[in-house]
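Q: Sequence in, structure out?
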Amino acid sequence: MESSSCAHSETDESLLRLLCDSGISLHKTDERVLLDTYVPFSRIQHALRTDDEQCKRTWVYSDDVSTIDPGVARACTEQLEFVRTLKESWTATRPHTLSIPERWKSEAQKTTWVTTDHMNAAALMHWIKPIETYITYISQDEVLRRHDGLEESFLPDFLLHCPSYVDTRLQSKDQWNNPKYTLPFFLDVITYPGDEGSADMAIPGFFVPTPGCTLYGDVENDFPPPLEKHGHLPKTFSVLHSSLGPSNCSRPKAKANFIHPALLIGIKGPARWPAQVSLSDSASIPSSMEQTLHDLTQRVEPNLIALLMNWHYQCDQNIRGIGIPSLPSYRCIPPWFMQFGLIYDAHGLVIVAHIPFSIPPSATSKSISAPLSFLSCIIDRLPIHGLLDVLPSSISHESRILGNFRAALALSCLQRHAFVMSAIMDGVNWPSSIAQDDFEEVEDGQEQDQDQDQDQSSSDAQSHSESASSDDGEFM
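A: Exactly. Output:
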């Protein structure tokens, strides 16, 4: 057998075998089940099972990269180097190292007319004036290069916007490649006033325009029993893979499954906003950061395994000449393959990386496999400051403005990562029974939306009729 780690090719096993050894056991004779186009979903659920005595998924927690167990750190060397490089995009302290588009600056300098784009750009330039020594303005060519290098760049991407955020009447390619559509989302984070409602809008809302993804405020996991989590889980927001493009977000809940797993999950932390600006019920607030991290991991686990399954099938189909030619072998999980979690509260952002890794068996071990384990590690804590009492261009509040600016860049990097993870999942050829089940659920949801719209229209019409009758009665 071959392994999923390139560094240990002599004792390699396939990623599918690693998934089995990690707790999703698959009968050897049933390995074809997940590849057969015509088997019913019930058989797939039967084939997936958890053997608690022989194979348990191992989760390692760390509240800082520096405190990770040395053995785990060695196994995650490439992933942790990716995280370190990623953080440079928002943590760099050298002059002129935090980048935003030059077109934002030029838009602010226009004087021929006043538009929303001009007003947003002018407001942003006014706010960031005290921190200009940290900022560099990148050219349009660099903006395009970052966006087009799918697996080469995880720098802030200023062109991540769904078609719905572009005027479809505009045929100019330059309009589609205009970073102005992402500017309002940056501005909302940088000018965050300090209340919970604004945080709920600005932080989850940053991911709304991500192509290939849909943001939901509440998501149910819909996975086979070995992956299903029971008991109460706190409310989260999730960025789901959406192969059909942005879907109707009017439904209060969505389902994450193998075809549409969550790419990023966010949850509120334990630090409360002051009573006068808080919206959360005190009973719903976690008691500690440790509890929050555990709750987040419970949400992440089935989705991360679903992402691994998608990666396996995409690469397997690529090897058989079906998928994207640029994908590397599924026997080597790329360093950037992980799932990010986001904790936000009154103190700011906490970014958590959930990393799959394998440690080769020791020389004395009887097992030839390298069981898949998972690392949940806090990679950064970013304060976000309320600026309600701060005047734009205020030199005395430079650190607060800079903190919010770094947070906006960090969110852009996480958005870029979710976009890349979504892009590699497009075209995965799942068994038709699973795809059909998912399609029927989408249709049912659309019918529910239509029924709700009709009910609302009928209710509005009835209310209007009653109001008209009442008005007639008053004038009779």
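Confidence is low (pLDDT under 50) at residues 1-13, 22-55, 245-251, 463-476.
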